Amino acid sequence: MKTRRDFIKITAAGAGAAALGLHALSWDSATAQFIANGDTSPVSDEELTNYPTYCEVCFWKCAGFTYVDKKGNIRKIIGNKDDPHSNGRFCPRGTGGVGMYYDEDRLQTPLIRETKADGTQYFRKASWDEALNLVAEKMNKLRLEHGPECLALFSHGTGGKHFTHLVKAFGSPNITAPSFAQCRGPREVAFTATYGEDVMSPERTDIRDTKCLVLIGSHLGENMHNGQVQEMSEAIDNGATIITVDPRFSTAASKSKYWLPIKPATDIALLMAWAHVLIYEELYDKDYVEKYTFGFKELKEHVKSMTPEWAYGITTIDPNVIRDTAREMAAASPAVLVHPGRHVTWYGDDTQRSRAIAILNALLGSWGRRGGFYNPEKVHLPKYPSPPYPKPKRSWKDAYPPGKYNLVSEVLSTGICDATIPNADLDCHLRGWIVYGTNLMASLPDQKKTLEAISNLDFLVVIDTMPMDIVQLADVVLPECTYLERYDPIRTSPHREPYIALRMPAAEPKHETKPGWWIAKELAKRLGLGDYFNYENYEDVLDWQLKKVGSSLEEMKRIGVKKFNREFDDLYFLQNLEDFEFNTNTGKIELYSTELEMEGFDPIPKYTHHEEPADGYYRLNYGRAPMHTFSRTSNNHNLWDLMKENSVWINPKVAKLWDIENGQLIWLKNQDGVVTDFPVKARVTERIRWDSVYLVHGFGHTNKKLTRAYGHGASDSNLVSKVHMDPIMGGTGMRGNFVTFLKEKPGKEVNA
Ligand SMILES: Nc1nc2c(c(=O)[nH]1)N[C@H]1C(S)=C(S)[C@@H](COP(=O)(O)OP(=O)(O)OC[C@H]3O[C@@H](n4cnc5c(=O)[nH]c(N)nc54)[C@H](O)[C@@H]3O)O[C@H]1N2
Ligand SMILES: Nc1nc2c(c(=O)[nH]1)N[C@H]1C(S)=C(S)[C@@H](COP(=O)(O)OP(=O)(O)OC[C@H]3O[C@@H](n4cnc5c(=O)[nH]c(N)nc54)[C@H](O)[C@@H]3O)O[C@H]1N2
Ligand code: SF4
Ligand SMILES: [Mo]
Fold this sequence. Notes:
With 752 residues, the chain is α/β, with parallel strands linked by helices.
């Protein structure tokens, strides 16, 4: 039976705001402003105490120090110069992270959904005890009546690890994040099929030492993943050639020797034509290809007719430019890097596009070479003692016919939705969701489907810091404190050398918020799983783990970041190794993928034609702005000051056709009739092709509780109603949506 679960919007400031405990809403703006900025009186560094942390404003996890004054006010965050993720410098978002702590719109207390006699729903403030008891009661009931496998966890961000541990102990394997099927999934599957290893995060790209960096989309500079952006500017200073393939003149394009304004959705044709030039002009790394690769003969035959002239008709890129750029790459080989990208779920054939990128790198001999891809290492911290996890009897995958998505290495978020929506033919058994640190309404495509899945749940628990869209749909809201107020697991991300970094609190949790580790532990206690959280305080866990690797909490509190020696130094680059075996079926780099062939997919990528916009429609393209992260920073006062709303980029030719002026407010309507909630400013610019428009992701919030972000800009997530599924790994291609312009606010019927 479907559960009615209204979006709870606070319309009347009085009752609703009081019920939510959001007293900030009734403050006069002057007070709110003062609180938002904390104490800003001048203070010298000598008067401040610093505490190590790593940033949570995005997932690059730069390490730094939080500075606190004598009154306990957080004053600033500065990068730790010993950290290879930040090299002592934070990006604007990381620096502005203090705004997450001071945000007066933060969730303050646990909340429980209630329904009034007249049917209206609202959130009631609850104590932690009451809220945790209720969640445990719901989880226990689900376990008893349907089995623990009927629970799913969506989790993005470091604190999610506490809930991953809880849900595994509970007995469910259904743990997912939008950073796979909506982000880097196709890349990981493609690189694993080719090299037997994935790209990882931070990416194992040796941008610092490259002589030629090729960006397929990858808008570094707007995508502010810190280490990569720093290395790219270092490479530019050292004279590296940058080649950017993008239908939009991105910041990276502006730093490039070549900008290839490709027709969207045609990249595979360009990549295969490059392979053609490298092979038929004999520019590829012959020794490397012979020694390390499998399937060269088949590849050579496959790309025979994929000439630059052939690709020109598809991509609109001049054949001479295709040849010249291929030669540039070859001249730099092996210190050349065709960047694998990160957000690669574009058109549904994304694993094949990523395969084409992996193949090009192999032809150029860049995998395992200086200036190409290095082999990273990480510190393996021992797991704090706890009982073994129970073995689940079923999983989300049972919702699909046997054999589907065999190559998938992580749980698909959209697969969880499929396993939640009843279907007579399939085993759709999920009934409860815990959502940690991911705003599913903004990050999953096809909002209708997400809402349908949610309406079929027995319960939805959301753990967040802000009143985001997904919070409005929860039955129980558990407010976490921000990363500046808590301990979290040690950062052990892979890098050139293995490093660890500590996150510790710089202030007490504000309001009634609690750290994730405490919330998970308290839930475990109520579920009879206390043995899995056998410690009083998370500091005990950290100190135990750190001592096992020759450090201690005390040491890490002083230094924040610690470097270790590599275990396999000879593996850093490949050329040091004679008989290296890759973890593929053939033990070689597979230009021809035996694994894909066995699963019934093309062993070498083919170009496939994608649907084009109808007359009067334009492809919706989206991406990042340097001062915001997804939807999570749009209410942060520091970053809001830098960018309050997005705009829609429109080519001047198109603007003229529509008689749209720069700065004019318009609405966007997509091919399924979905219209943006708010008008968005037109940005008329040559920097975008005439067949596409562009929006920065993360704006157009409809929740009035986000007092700054509400009503600013347009949401690309609303407009991504159509999904092109990657048949190989279930990634959700999201760039096959088309929009047209409305110059007047549409009537209600359009939005229905
Ligand atoms: N400031 C900031 N930085 C971030 C993030 C953030 O939220 N804010 N998020 C981080 C995360 S999780 C990720 S995954 C990355 C995402 O960042 P990237 O991995 O760089 O994302 P892309 O989708 O490759 O890049 C978007 C670019 O692709 C171009 N594009 C669109 N269609 C096509 C096409 O058909 N062909 C080609 N060649 N290009 C096309 C767009 O015009 C745009 O410039 O950013 C990370 N860095
Ligand atoms: N339309 C569209 N969809 C996209 C993308 C896009 O560009 N366009 N990008 C895709 C990509 S690349 C990715 S990686 C995903 C990212 O998707 P998400 O990870 O869902 O990113 P956000 O939308 O920022 O959601 C983060 C949520 O975490 C909350 N949060 C922040 N800090 C904390 C904390 O310390 N604790 C807790 N408990 N919660 C916290 C925020 O308030 C917010 O609700 O989205 C994907 N989906
Ligand atoms: S890149 Fe910026 S936002 Fe991301 S972790 Fe580093 S400082 Fe924080
Ligand atoms: Mo991402």
